[in-house]
Design brief:
With 148 residues, this protein is α+β, with helices and mostly antiparallel strands. It contains three helices and seven strands, in the order E-E-E-E-E-H-H-E-E-H. The strands form two sheets. A four-stranded antiparallel β-sheet has the order 1-2-3-4, with helices on one face. Strands 5-6-7 form a three-stranded antiparallel β-sheet, covered by helices on one side.
């Protein structure tokens, strides 16, 4: 978030390395753009209802990979060496594709229904938990200031 988009009295608590997600003492904002499109979602801290960290994966790739490898081994046991190698290689590729397509996603939902979803490429679990804790601390701090 650029300085010109900061509200009066607002300060940045943390920001993602690519600057797509910004947490301030007032809100959390996601903004991305590219390939002729832009996406901006901003949720005020008091409107956050839940935060979720989950994995998205394409399990069918893993299942196909395992089935191909088992089939290849079965063919190898029946003296079909070329088919065995093909099954094992294709199975390995499907398993590799499965591993490459797994995505760690953080979802921040508002009580109004809008969600901020972003991929956490390369972020460690502890870093993600720290980020969630920062959001919760900022929300609690904001609520405490409002109630006094």
């Amino acid at each position: 978030m650029e300085k010109k988009h900061i509200l009066d009295g607002e300060s940045i608590i943390t920001q993602s390395n690519d600057k797509t997600v910004t947490l301030t003492n007032y809100r959390i904002r996601f903004q991305s753009s590219g390939s002729g499109k832009a996406h901006i979602v901003s949720i005020l801290l008091e409107k956050i209802s839940s935060i979720e960290i989950h994995y998205k994966s394409k399990m069918f790739l893993l299942i196909i990979g395992i089935l191909l490898m088992v089939s290849g081994l079965f063919m190898g046991a029946n003296n079909m060496g070329q088919v065995m190698v093909l099954g094992i290689v294709l199975g390995g590729l499907f398993i590799l594709f499965y591993l490459l397509t797994r995505k760690h996603v953080v979802s921040v939902a508002s009580d109004g229904g809008v969600k901020i979803n972003f991929h956490t490429k390369g972020m460690k679990r502890e870093t993600l938990l720290d980020f969630v804790n920062q959001i919760e601390k900022a929300k609690i701090s904001k609520n405490n200031k409002r109630s006094t």
